[in-house]
Amino acid sequence: xxxxxxxxxxxxxxxxxxxxxxxxxxxxxxxxxxxxxxxxxxxxxxxxxxxxxxxxxxxxxxxxxxxxxxxxxxxxxxxxxxxxxxxxxxxxxxxxxxxxxxxxxxxxxxxxxxxxxxxxxxxxxxxxxxxxxxxxxxxxxxxxxxxxxxxxxxxxxxxxxxxxxxxxxxxxxxxxxxxxxxxxxxxxxxxxxxxxxxxxxxxxxxxxxxxxxxxxxxxxxxxxxxxxxxxxxxxxxxxxxxxxxxxxxxxxxxxxxxxxxxxxxxxxxxxxxxxxxxxxxxxxxxxxxxxxxxxxxxxxxxxxxxxxxxxxxxxxxxxxxxxxxxxxxxxxxxxxxxxxxxxxxxxxxxxxxxxxxxxxxxxxxxxxxxxxxxxxxxxxxxx
Length: 383
Known about the structure:
Layout: H1 2-24, H2 26-43, E1 46-47, H3 53-64, E2 71-76, E3 82-87, E4 105-106, H4 111-126, H5 135-138, H6 155-159, H7 208-221, H8 225-233, E5 241-242, E6 279-281, H9 283-292, H10 294-302, E7 319-320, E8 323-328, E9 331-340, E10 343-350, E11 355-360, H11 368-382
Antiparallel strand pairs: 1-3, 2-3, 2-11, 4-6, 5-6, 7-8, 8-9, 9-10, 10-11
Helix pairs in contact: 1-2, 2-3, 3-11, 4-7, 4-8, 4-10
């Protein structure tokens, strides 16, 4: 009788306790179970025959150690040779489609790479000088201005995050929950907007700059940036689209977010955000786009402003166009990080012209760690 009672008790506990844990804190249960998911994702890694061994190892580590259950990695060397690795599933392992090189991800801030290329293409490839245009001239925005420094903003300042907007000192108007940003539809608001520093005097990452640049582009050239990207860079042929039209079908990993979940996208205006963080695609398509227009990547590095003092060892301190310039040991690299709730992404290139694209469906409590890991793996592999 005692043995039977003990068996009943254990059965009840086996059913009731997991149910109670799930109802109490579902993310806690997801974190308990994730090591199994991560190991399965790492096991599922598939790479091109040309992919170096460090890439396959890195894809597995991203799944196991950095809570990204599905990943795409694409490496393009300085000669244009491409290789890639993928792992994971669209949802539950074995019960949903496996991730492939064609699987669509959110690009997050890697969208800025695409926007930058479209915005500088008239000057870099057609010789139409406009990056030194005054923003207020292209916007036909007359004063008076609440902050007179607004008149000093040039288009190039918007593209290399030196226009005077600092999201660490003032709210980023592009990503305030359930509030329509004033750019792109009410850019006259710029006349009433204070800056946080003198344009061109330092760098501070800002999503607003790319939205304003897109509006200025349209008024300067008589067509939208999105039309220009399609006409000049053939964007759709690379599988790149806009989140407000075509979202990814992946189940992103929100287990570290107690408030945010898959429905967070309802809180933001993705049409307004398409230039800064609102595109979708895959790592292969983005890599092919960059490789096809490599001079525009090189042009980003030419936008370095020697007069601006910055610390290359401090994240987000130095910018060359859309690229953040970083010193890793004795080596310079240029990066664009991407982050949205439940996902991470990275574009990384070196002085030789090798570059890496990573799209991942998870994030960690220490968001810089996977980026630092990939930097080290990339540099060891390139050595």
